[in-house]
Design goal:
The chain is built from 16 helices and 8 strands. By secondary structure, it is α/β, with parallel strands linked by helices. The longest helix is centred in the last third of the chain and has 21 residues. The protein binds adenosine-5'-diphosphate and magnesium ion (MG). Pfam families: AAA_22, Cdc6_lid, WHD_Cdc6.
Length: 408
């Protein structure tokens, strides 16, 4: 056995590829940054802040740009004695209602030991406590609610908070809310009165295209990787794969990091394109596993039905055919099947998770219907199913079909 030895052949600073790293410079977002700065300008001018609603798919720089601009704003308003700015940032991804968000905000503003318990108050009481914490701060308070879409339709706080001053709850404090959403539909399902106030300024971040991702990767690679750690074409490949799939910088950076780890553990001198391909495969498998953890047992059985159709080379196939296969799968699991409408809902969820892909077909008089197929590699899906369902025999059977049909 040999001891530990530092390995710095690929990574110079791996932390620069981690989720929590805050880049000093942001690439390719000049226009969005200009609009964002414009929306924040009233704070610098000493007026009431705008409420801002920022949306875009995951990984398009919403959080990074917001953090970057607010750091800059906080530093720059130091120059003006009549501006007292506080920023309160909250990630709402585990909070599923206005109530929970309000409790979390109160607790972020209170000293440790003085926190509210998570339940047991009427909602309006929590809001009142929140107003008194905000009022104690005075000046301008920017409240950043990141991943706000997780509160769903329990959005009362988004109505109340921007109106707190007009409604007489606040005198010393002006509140501006920045709501950030990964879900493009969230805005449309908000109560129209909430839309009116919260979306005073709307900013949209589009997905990145391949050349943009290539620049983002290049500037990050300079910090994160050693010189010559990347073979030609590697950054472009990561950028192209991520652009084709999601347009997410996070996905592109994850690919590069994982490809680097793969190269490192293979003792390669540099990251090659095949390391990127391996990394993509691993990330896909992770995505399926992550999506699958969210699925109910029947969600998993519906997915297994599609996997089974794919093993027989019978995809894309209609919902009806998936349903028949699903009934067979339920049979082998000695579980009673759900009705077809519920299975259709599961198919819609699987699409949303990116595990399935659907194409719409027109069939004249009978209207349109969808055809489903896997949107992830067959092998990843089958492996994930093997871990998630106690159906060894059925899965072995599917594996055999797949081998016979050269799907595997
Ligand atoms: P979102 O909040 O939209 O899901 P993030 O802001 O978290 O996305 O960005 C995902 C990752 O990509 C982060 O590591 C971030 O630093 C990086 N990133 C996103 N956009 C840029 C950019 N324009 N320039 C440099 N890095 C970026
Ligand atoms: Mg984010």
């Amino acid at each position: 056995m040999t001891g530990f030895e530092r390995n710095r052949s690929i990574f110079a600073n791996k932390d620069a590829l981690s989720e929590s790293y805050q880049p000093d410079e942001l690439e390719e977002r000049d226009e969005e940054i200009a609009d964002y700065m414009d929306a924040l300008q009233p704070i610098v001018d000493g007026w009431e802040p705008n409420n801002i609603f920022l949306y875009g798919n995951t990984g398009v720089g919403k959080t990074a740009v917001t953090e970057y601009l607010l750091r800059m704003l906080e530093a720059d308003v130091e120059a003006y004695d009549d501006v007292a700015l506080s920023v309160l940032t909250l990630n709402c991804n585990t909070l599923t209602s206005s109530y929970q968000v309000a409790i979390a905000m109160v607790n972020a503003l209170r000293d440790p030991g003085d926190e509210l318990s998570a339940t047991g108050y009427p909602q309006q009481t929590v809001f009142t406590k929140l107003y008194s914490e905000l009022e104690a701060l005075g000046g301008t308070v920017l409240v950043v609610l990141d991943e706000i879409d997780s509160i769903g339709d329990r959005d009362e706080l988004l109505y109340e908070l921007p109106r707190a001053r007009a409604n007489g709850y606040l005198e010393q404090t002006s509140v501006g809310v920045i709501g950030i959403s990964n879900d493009l539909q969230f805005r449309d399902q908000l109560d129209p009165r909430v839309q009116d106030t919260l979306c005073e300024r709307e900013l949209q971040f589009p997905p990145y295209e391949a050349p943009e991702l290539a620049n983002i990767l290049a500037s990050r690679a300079k910090i994160a990787l050693t010189d010559d750690a990347c073979a030609d074409g590697v950054l472009n490949l990561c950028a192209a794969l991520a652009a084709r799939d999601s347009g997410s910088a996070r996905q592109a950076l994850d690919l590069l990091r994982l490809a680097g780890e793969t190269a490192e553990s293979a003792d390669a001198e540099a990251i090659e394109e095949h390391h990127v391909e391996d990394a993509r495969h691993k990330l896909n498998a992770e995505r399926v596993e992550e999506g699958m953890r969210e699925l109910t047992v029947h969600g998993k059985l519906v997915l297994l039905a599609v996997v089974s159709k794919e093993a027989q080379q019978k995809t894309p196939c209609r919902g009806r055919d998936v349903y028949e296969e699903y009934q067979r799968v339920c049979d082998s699991a000695t579980t009673s099947p759900l009705v077809q409408r519920s299975v259709n809902n599961h198919l819609a969820d699987l699409r949303m998770f990116g595990i399935l892909k659907a194409t719409e077909n027109r069939s004249g008089s009978r209207g349109n219907y969808h055809s489903y197929e896997l949107n992830v590699p067959f092998r990843s899906a089958l492996e994930a199913m093997g871990d998630a369902l106690p159906l060894a025999e059925t899965i072995e059977q599917i594996r055999k079909y797949a081998k016979r049909n050269n799907v595997l």
